[in-house]
């Protein structure tokens, strides 16, 4: 009897340990799908939504973060199922090239996440559901229609995906059916900045993009694209600082940051430097999304 009880306890402990390992592995896989996008999408979008929204309830902030993360997960499950060869060179730790999940399972996961995201959005409002649906349309255009292989259409899809993420999070945080005038101006500025500068992400991925047949701006115009970054980042910084009426010190710091990142893209061409450049660009982009705080809180009037 005692031996039988010990056997049952041993089996139960093994079952619990196996289940826990399986759950942790799935969590790690989900994390690896979205790991690269925290600095480029999740942090900037959450900063934007927090700044333009009048309410900052911790529970609602958590809901907005989860909504954003699941939609980012949806995009990555789709996108990475089409870029396995490229990722094997640029990011071999991602779930598909590392063998943690198959292409077939990644695409099935993607469609499961589409349904989940729509259902999760329905907990908030009809406009959030519509925003989620529009986001999925942009993902389909980017991946399934292969618009990501064209530099201009890729940028347009990126703008659409980025803005719908910002809109969805802002609607959740504001708990309103629409956004106010300042929020709409901030959304328009964000869309324009992403359209003009988002190919900053492509410089570090040139080898993988070329291998997969994708035609990005750094591949189409290696020198011209760097001259463009040298001009676009300082000019965008100056225009945004003027538009949001930054104070003199804030103005100098923000424009200097944009100028420094632009200069680095122009001067330093190797892959390691381009990875560092992109991290600095991501910090600058977070700053872009914080600028509307000067309207609501006069946080940058100094």
Automatic annotation (TrEMBL):
InterPro entries: Prenyltransferase_related, UbiA_prenyltransferase, UbiA_sf. GO terms for molecular function: transferase activity, transferring alkyl or aryl (other than methyl) groups. One of its GO terms (cellular component) is membrane. It is a multi-pass membrane protein. It comes from the Eukaryota. The keyword ATP-binding does not apply. The chain crosses the membrane at residues 111-138, 252-268, 280-301. Pfam families: UbiA. Gene3D superfamilies: UbiA prenyltransferase. PANTHER family: CHLOROPHYLL SYNTHASE, CHLOROPHYLL SYNTHASE, CHLOROPLASTIC. This is UbiA prenyltransferase family-domain-containing protein.
């Amino acid at each position: 009897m005692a031996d039988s009880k010990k056997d049952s306890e041993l089996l139960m402990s093994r079952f619990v340990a196996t289940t826990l390992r399986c759950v942790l592995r799935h969590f790690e896989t989900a994390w690896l799908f979205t790991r690269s996008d925290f600095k480029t999408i999740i942090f900037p979008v959450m900063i934007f939504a927090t700044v333009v929204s009048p309410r900052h309830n911790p529970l609602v902030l958590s809901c907005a973060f989860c909504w954003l993360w699941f939609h980012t997960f949806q995009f990555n499950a789709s996108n990475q199922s089409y870029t396995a060869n490229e990722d094997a060179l640029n990011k071999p730790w991602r779930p598909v090239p590392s063998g943690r999940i198959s292409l077939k399972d990644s695409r099935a996961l993607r469609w499961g996440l589409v349904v989940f995201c729509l259902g999760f959005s329905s907990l908030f409002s009809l406009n959030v559901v519509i925003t989620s649906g529009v986001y999925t349309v942009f993902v389909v255009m980017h991946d399934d229609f292969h618009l990501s292989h064209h530099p201009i259409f890729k940028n347009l899809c990126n703008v659409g995906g980025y803005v719908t993420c910002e809109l969805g999070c802002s609607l959740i945080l504001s708990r309103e059916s629409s956004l106010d005038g300042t929020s709409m101006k901030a959304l328009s500025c964000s869309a324009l900045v992403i359209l003009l500068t988002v190919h900053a992400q492509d410089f570090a991925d040139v080898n993988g993009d070329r291998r997969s047949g994708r035609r990005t701006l750094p591949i189409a115009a290696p020198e011209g694209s760097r001259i463009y970054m040298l001009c676009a980042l300082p000019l965008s910084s100056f225009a945004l600082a003027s538009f949001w009426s930054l104070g003199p010190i804030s103005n100098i710091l923000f424009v200097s940051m944009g100028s420094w990142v632009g200069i680095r893209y122009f001067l330093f061409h190797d892959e390691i430097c381009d990875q560092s450049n992109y991290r600095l660009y991501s910090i600058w982009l977070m700053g872009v999304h914080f600028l509307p705080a000067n309207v609501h809180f006069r946080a940058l009037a100094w």
